[in-house]
């Protein structure tokens, strides 16, 4: 589209992280791209490409500063005026602010007019900064993670050519309301288009995972169609963990711990698994091959996420609230990690009971998301007896066994 020169392109996604990834890739390719949105929600190294940052560097800023100086001076003198003179001063203040707003709008329009691609979250496209702008070409990344109403926000900008990018074999949008979910809000526009007969085009080359990590999801979920755009040498197994096979950086650490209800009485925790996760992460970091920001700790249950956060808290490797993703260890739910990637993922599955209940771990899309986040290493901590009651987990565990990737030895080494 950029090469065709068909006018400004709108590139959107459901999350700020995904929009940042789009922006970063475009800038690396030399595309003139800008990002709308609050700078605090934009990755630090990309903030210079936000509209606000570009506006601050605009030549008209000098004129704005002069007007602001005049406004401040007039405001200070306002109390000394009386009668008609005071009324005229109020009029001048009003006109001054109007002139400043006009300049700010002019600068924003200038920045947007100079861009080949404008990047934003789907909801952010509704911001007044875009005014009545129309976009013939629109791309929506993470399209399977966005509720349909959100995707219509960019589409309503007079879209004529639309590309939806997503994976309907991974998790759908997060919807809190049970009734809204039952009424169909959890079905994305991407899925609805497939349901009515549209055939998606599959992008077959993956550039994230070590080829062995990609092996099972390719076979189970993508009909063995995934091709590897990276080699094993480019995704070397990290030091600090006793991998069963150093040429296949996947491990299942079998724990016989028991699950219990979390403090809120709704979620679940597994203290034995949490303890082992802490040991594994500490050993990975001690080896010096990885930084805290390279590791993602993942669990399906928010209760376990909170327990792990409490255990890691105070040791200096956690990312603070609202921090950059590059600052520290991130502990999130599986759903919260969709669309993300890390060098190593440590997954705590939590469920361990005599009844073989796996809860919403039985959603194959959640397993697919969990095991496709890492680039160089995947470590799963769990109770195999419980997990085997689910078909998808049984399949993955059989693959692990066939590959001889069970890490019993780890339990004696730490």
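^ structure tokens above, recovered residues below v
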């Amino acid at each position: 589209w950029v090469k065709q020169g068909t006018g400004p392109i709108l590139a959107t996604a459901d999350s700020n992280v995904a929009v940042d990834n789009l922006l970063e890739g475009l800038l690396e390719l030399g595309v003139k791209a800008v990002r709308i949105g609050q700078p605090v929600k934009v990755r630090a190294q990309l903030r210079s490409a936000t509209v606000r940052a570009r506006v601050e560097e605009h030549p008209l800023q000098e004129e704005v500063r002069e007007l602001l100086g005049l406004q401040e001076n007039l405001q200070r003198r306002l109390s000394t005026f009386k009668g008609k003179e005071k009324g005229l001063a109020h009029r001048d203040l009003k006109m001054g602010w109007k002139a400043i707003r006009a300049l700010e709008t002019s600068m924003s329009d200038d920045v947007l007019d100079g861009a080949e691609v404008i990047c934003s979250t789907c909801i952010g496209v509704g911001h007044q900064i875009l005014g009545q702008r129309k976009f013939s070409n629109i791309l929506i990344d993470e399209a399977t993670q966005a509720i349909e109403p959100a995707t219509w926000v960019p589409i309503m900008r007079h879209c004529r050519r639309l590309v939806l990018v997503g994976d309907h074999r991974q998790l759908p949008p997060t919807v809190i309301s049970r009734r809204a979910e039952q009424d169909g809000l959890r079905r994305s526009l991407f899925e609805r288009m497939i349901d009515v007969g549209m055939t998606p085009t599959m992008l077959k080359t993956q550039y994230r995972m070590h080829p062995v990590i990609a092996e099972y999801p390719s076979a189970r979920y993508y009909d063995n169609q995934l091709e590897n755009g990276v080699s094993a040498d480019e995704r070397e197994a990290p030091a600090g963990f006793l991998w069963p096979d150093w040429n296949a950086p996947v491990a299942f650490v079998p724990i016989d711990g028991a699950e219990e209800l979390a403090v809120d009485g709704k979620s679940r925790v597994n203290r034995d698994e949490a303890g082992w996760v802490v040991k594994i992460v500490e050993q990975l970091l001690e080896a010096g091959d990885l930084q805290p920001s390279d590791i993602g700790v993942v669990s399906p249950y928010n209760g376990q996420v909170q327990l792990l956060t409490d255990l890691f808290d105070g040791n200096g490797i956690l990312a603070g609230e609202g921090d950059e993703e590059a600052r520290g260890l991130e502990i999130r739910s599986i759903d919260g990690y969709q669309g993300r990637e890390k060098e190593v993922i440590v997954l705590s599955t939590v469920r361990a009971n005599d009844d073989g209940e796996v809860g919403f771990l039985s959603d194959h899309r959640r397993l697919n998301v969990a095991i496709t986040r890492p680039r160089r290493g995947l470590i799963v901590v769990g109770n195999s007896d419980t997990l085997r009651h689910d078909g998808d987990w049984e399949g993955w565990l059989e693959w692990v066994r066939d590959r001889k990737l069970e890490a019993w030895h780890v339990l004696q080494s730490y």
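Confidence is low (pLDDT under 50) at residues 320-326.
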